[in-house]
Structure formats: C-alpha cells, structure tokens
C-alpha cells in the first residue's frame, strides 16, 4: 500500500522538477515479474525505471548505511528496499531478491556494476536471474547527470530492451558469465544507440 502511495508522489515530483520523462519500448517488458538490469549513471535512475515500468512494483538494493536513520529506514522498508553491506554482501544479498522474485509479486532493479563510478560487472545479477528463473531486462537512462541539469528540464529518456533468459541448466562458469555479460553490454549499447548514437556516458 505504501509503495502505491509513494509512486504518484514521486511521479509528481519528477514532473515538477523536470516535466520531460519519456519512456521508450515499454512493450518489450515481459509478462510476469523480471529483473531490470542497468548501467548505473545517476542516483535517481531507480525512481525513473520504476515509474516507467508502472504498474509493476519493484524491490531495490540499498546500502546498509541508509537504514541507520529511523525515518529513512521506515520509507525504504515500505518501498520494498532491503539493506546490503557493499563491503561484505553476505548471502542475504541473494536470498532476499530471489525469494521475492519467486513469489511473483515484485520485480527487481539492479545495477551489476554496483556503483555509478564502476564499469566492472558483478555476478550477482546473473545468479539471481538463474536462481529465480526470472528474465533480465536491460534498460538504460540518458539525460541530466547532475541535479542542476535535472532542474534545467532536459529530457529524461528511459529505454527498455528485450528480455535475456538464463537457462536453469546453464552453469555460471567464468566463460559463460563473460558471454552473458557481453549480451548485456551489447544490449545496453543498442538501447543507447536507439536513443542517441552520439551518447557517451562520463561519470560525474
């Protein structure tokens, strides 16, 4: 219920601050729940992705430090966020999203690189996809990378790609992970090119 209350509020705030959220190829989203997988470019991407894929509701990974504030913890807990210690992720970083996905009620938003300033892909997204047997849907954001740019009302572009499924029988060996990583990289490149072939992300 809380999530359903927050979503229109978030949509209104985005409209007031910017007013130019454009969603592309929402028809590519599969039936049922899934895992949105994106390169991490801004801190507001999860909000835009969740708004773009509405009415689906999403789980989020959030760094454990954010849960120390009782008010913020209340909001995060009721917005389907769960804490992850980036230094020592532990088994819960996999068990919680896999369990949630298997229930079929929520989808997941995940950034395989972990941080906005890393291009290195982590294996968690692949393992979660295989364990839950839910497809990964590549998605990209193009638009302002700073809050100042956001207020200049430049377009916020979200582009969804075709689902990528990992067969239950596929072993996530180093070689197979490399192949799937490349599929994701190629999908992100294609999605970026669909929006703007001249786009090049530079970390702020």
Could you explain the architecture of this structure?
This protein is of the alpha/beta class and 204 residues long. It is built from 7 helices and 7 strands, in the order αββαβαβαβαβαβα. The protein has helices at residues 2-17, 45-52, 70-78, 92-103, 124-132, 147-151, 174-195, and strands spanning 21-24, 35-37, 58-63, 81-84, 107-110, 136-142, 156-160. The protein has a 7-stranded mixed beta sheet, sandwiched between helices. β3 (58-63), α3 and β4 form a beta-alpha-beta unit. The chain is globular, with a radius of gyration of 16 Å. The model is unreliable at 116-120 (pLDDT under 50).
Helix-strand layout with pairing:
Layout: H1 2-17, E1 21-24, E2 35-37, H2 45-52, E3 58-63, H3 70-78, E4 81-84, H4 92-103, E5 107-110, H5 124-132, E6 136-142, H6 147-151, E7 156-160, H7 174-195
Helix pairs in contact: 1-2, 4-5
Summarize the entry for a quick read:
The chain has seven helices and seven strands, in the order H-E-E-H-E-H-E-H-E-H-E-H-E-H. The protein has helices spanning 2-17, 45-52, 70-78, 92-103, 124-132, 147-151, 174-195, and strands spanning 21-24, 35-37, 58-63, 81-84, 107-110, 136-142, 156-160.
SSE string: HEEHEHEHEHEHEH
Give the CA-CA distance, first to last residue.
35 Å
Structural class: alpha/beta
Query: Per DSSP, what share of the residues sits in E-state strands of 2 or more residues?
Result: 15-25%
Over the alpha carbons, how many angstroms does the gyration radius reach?
A: 16 Å
The total of helices stands at: 7
- Largest sheet data: 7 strands, mixed
Indicate the low-confidence ranges by residue numbers: 116-120
* Helical proportion, percent range: 25-40%
């Amino acid at each position: 219920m809380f999530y359903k209350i927050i979503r229109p509020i978030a949509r209104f705030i985005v409209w007031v601050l910017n007013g130019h959220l454009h969603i592309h190829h929402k028809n590519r989203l599969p039936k049922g729940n899934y895992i949105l997988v994106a390169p991490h470019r801004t801190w507001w991407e999860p909000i835009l992705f969740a708004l773009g894929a509405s009415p689906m509701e999403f789980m989020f990974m959030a760094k454990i430090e954010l849960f120390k504030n009782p008010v913020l913890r209340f909001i995060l807990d009721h917005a389907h966020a769960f804490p992850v210690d980036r230094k020592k992720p532990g088994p819960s970083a996999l068990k919680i999203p896999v369990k949630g996905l298997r229930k079929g009620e929520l989808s997941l938003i995940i950034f395989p690189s972990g941080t906005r300033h890393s291009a290195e892909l982590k294996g968690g997204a692949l393992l979660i996809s295989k364990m839950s047997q839910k497809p990964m849907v590549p998605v990209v954001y193009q638009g302002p990378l700073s809050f100042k740019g956001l207020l200049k009302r430049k377009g916020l572009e979200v582009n969804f790609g075709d689902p990528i499924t990992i067969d239950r029988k596929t072993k996530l060996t180093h070689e197979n992970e490399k192949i799937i990583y490349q599929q994701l990289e190629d999908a992100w490149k294609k999605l970026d090119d669909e929006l703007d072939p001249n786009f090049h992300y530079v970390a702020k």
